[in-house]
C-alpha cells in the first residue's frame, strides 16, 4: 500500500526483515510507532535496531515486521 504523507512525501507499508530494514523505517510495536535511527549487524544475520525513543530491539533473521517507509523522490 502506498499513500501520501503530510508534506507531500510518498509513503509505503512494507514487510521488513533483518536483511531489509533501513534507517528511517517506522515500525509499530505494542501500539507505538518507533522510528529506526541506527542499526547494527549481529552474528548469524541478526540485527539490533535503535529507535528515536532510545529503546533497542534485536531481530532474528526470520523475524518479519510491518513498517512504513518514506520513499525518496528521484
TrEMBL record:
Protein name as it appears in the record: Uncharacterized protein
Organism: Streptomyces gibsoniae
